[in-house]
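Many introductory courses stop at the sequence. We go one step further.
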Amino acid sequence: MNLKHTMTSREIAELTGKRHANVVRDTEAMFSQLKIEAADYLDTYADAQGKTRKQYRLDRDLTMTLVTKYDTARRYAVVRRWRELEEQEAGRELSEAELIEKMVDLAKKYREEAHDKTSRMLLPKNIAANLSDRRKGRVIHPADVNEALIALGFMTRSTDYVDGKKRYFYDLTDRGREFGRVGSATKTNRSLEWRAGVLPILEEYFDAQA
């Protein structure tokens, strides 16, 4: 890895206003989904007390892949910083449009790889357990996952009465079909299953709600 073309997770945290611990967690989740060895990008630094802490040093492709799930302002801050770094080395001004186009391409690749390499589909209870494990001290319930998926525009909820009892039914939106599919369906229930690619999006959502 060419160290002249890298950005550390700490710098990404500073640019985006996110806690470094959250950027580290997002980076490790990205590595897991892309089947990348985290150790290949592991680096260290000394904190204010002189203690050695871990960080990750990412090339441009991985940096852009990481921030595709962040909001527009955070992505823009990282894009501008990469342009500054490349201007310093190349001695010429690079187009922000070129970098943004690269981010779009990487976002497609990120989604495709997340889908292709994930055979197991997850129910809301599986997603809740996964997110709770990653977020020490905070419990995520299946109902929280459903509300988040609705808020993100991935599914809709309707109500009906079956045998005199109120039931909730969920349907995928066009946006949701990228990450989910209809699982088993009965008279009283229709389950939706989700690919692991939805996990980092939900993590970002719950971070924003914290």
